[in-house]
Specification:
Elements lengths: L16 H12 L3 H4 L1 H8 L1 H28 L6 H9 L1 H33 L7 E5 L2 E4 H19 L2 H29 L12 H8 L2 H5 L4 H4 L8 H29 L2 H6 L3 H10 L2 H35 L18 H13 L7 H8 L1 H21 L12 H20 L11 H18 L12 H15 L1
Length: 477
């Protein structure tokens, strides 16, 4: 994306098709599948958890299907920022961009904490000699430094170019696939159906699993954020978005069935790293449990790299539009990356491990409501643009005529329904501290939102009009 406001470098189309699929799939496969599977099975039972995950995956696939059309029509860095700007105007564009950026950053911080936690399972000595206790967990210096130094490395990989990040992502995803094959093979040979009982618990348990779906599947929307850097046709980019979600859904359902076949529900629920213990039980080998943990580390890295890409491109888009300080809207003159945004998010991830593992659960939940808000807005703007700009070029169409409108309406209904699950008092409502973190993020966002001028209509030239209005405002000061 390059406008009159930016006469310097632009983004490079550096990622090929294989890199792009690795980016999309890897973004959705973080660490949650290693640590959370026991809780899913305890809450919903084997089939209940699988149905919740599969149903949630279908909701995400529908949303991804709508994203696919919008991304093919507007393949610009920042994704939904541009869809909402064109269809709903700058203030709604900020709301959607800010919401999903908060979700991305919460997961980037989560991965910085999850990595040392995973390593401590193999190397427990890093927990020795804690420095202090915070949020109910002790923080040892070695443990925190592993997370912080890793954050520096991931930030550096993203800083020097998306191609480097794409190559790392591809190799790590290939290893993750091998781990999945080993898990499935172990379950086929040594798993037992009796361990899978009970197959169902109750509807509350199903909703408890469903509520984590936005956290687990966030990442397919990294593809729209990086669409200017994909060396693919707009139509193929649209297809990539949808396929990535289906692959991720299969992965999570696989984890549920294989883990439940390995151990009883009670044993998995009592485990800190349920899927790793399930792998060890299936193969009767601690070495295989460690192999799965290596897969967990691979998932952490793929999600971490991808979501840092997504968050930095969104902050770049908001900075470039004048919604955030212009410092965020700069590209590095050599590496063609939004380097300032990458450094800002990287600094947050460096700090995260020093808040201990007590932050893990809060981070899982705090960003999810904001992510769903953005998904809901994208469904709405899909419908608005279908009505307002029927002749817009759409290389990938999410259904012709009324069928496409039906998909948009269904997506809006389902995402709104998903959003209601986060209301306090609902069976699947989140931890109070997660609400605090979520509200804090939006309180910060309000400061920037109310600085955006009113009265700027949605349309093709909205960003240019916004920039001119802000320029005139600065000149008058």
């Amino acid at each position: 994306m390059q406008t009159s406001e930016q006469s310097g470098p632009g983004f490079k189309k550096a990622l090929n098709a294989f890199d792009s699929y690795a980016l999309g799939f890897g973004a959705m496969i973080g660490f949650g599948w290693v640590v959370l599977s026991g809780g899913w099975l305890e809450d919903a039972g084997t089939l209940g958890a699988a149905i919740a995950m599969g149903g949630g995956g279908l909701i995400m696939a529908l949303v991804a299907y709508l994203y696919a059309e919008l991304t093919s029509a507007m393949p610009k860095a920042g994704g939904e920022h541009h869809y909402l700007m064109r269809g709903m105007g700058p203030r709604w564009a900020f709301v959607g961009s800010w919401g999903i950026t908060g979700g991305y950053i919460s997961i980037v911080a989560f991965e910085a904490v999850a990595l040392p936690r995973t390593i401590s399972y193999i190397w427990p000595e890093i927990l020795d000699n804690p420095m202090y206790s915070i949020f109910g967990s002790e923080v040892a210096l070695t443990w925190a430094l592993i997370g912080a130094v890793s954050a520096v490395v991931i930030t550096a990989i993203n800083y020097i170019g998306i191609k480097v990040a794409g190559v790392v992502q591809t190799f790590v995803v290939l290893f993750l696939v091998i781990v999945g094959i080993l898990l499935a093979t172990g379950s086929f040979m040594n798993g037992t159906v009796s361990n899978m009982e009970p197959f169902f618990t109750d509807s509350a348990g199903l909703f408890t699993v469903l509520v984590v779906v936005p956290f687990l599947f966030v990442g397919f929307d990294v593809i729209p954020q990086a669409s200017e850097e994909l060396n693919m046709s707009p139509r193929r980019i649209g297809r990539l978005i949808v396929v990535s979600v289906f692959i991720a859904t299969l992965w999570y359902v696989l984890v549920i069935f294989t883990s439940s076949s390995a151990m009883s529900r009670e044993a998995l629920a009592a485990s800190d790293l349920a899927t790793a213990d399930a792998m060890g039980a299936l193969w009767n080998s601690q070495f295989m449990a460690n192999i799965l943990l290596a897969g967990g580390i691979a998932g952490i890295l793929t999600s971490w790299i991808a979501l840092l890409i997504g968050a930095s491109r969104l902050m770049y888009a908001m900075g470039h539009s004048g919604m955030l300080p212009r410092w965020f809207g700069k590209l590095h003159p050599r590496f063609n990356t939004p380097s300032n945004a990458i450094l800002f998010i990287g600094a947050l991830s460096v700090a995260a491990p020093f808040f201990g593992t007590g932050m893990l659960g809060w981070l899982v939940d705090s960003g999810s409501p904001s992510i769903v808000v953005t998904y809901f807005l994208v469904c709405i703007v899909f419908l608005m643009l279908r009505r307002r700009e029927p002749e817009m070029e759409r290389p990938f169409r999410s259904g012709r005529g009324k069928i496409g409108v039906m998909f948009g309406v269904l997506g809006a209904i389902l995402t709104f329904g998903l959003l209601t699950l986060y209301i306090p008092g609902m069976p699947a409502s989140i931890d109070p501290m997660s609400y605090v973190l979520c509200l804090l993020w939006w309180a910060i966002g309000m400061v920037f939102l109310f600085r955006i001028p009113r009265g700027i209509e949605a349309g093709v030239r909205t960003e240019a009009i916004l920039l001119n209005t802000l320029r005139e405002r600065r000149r008058k000061r």
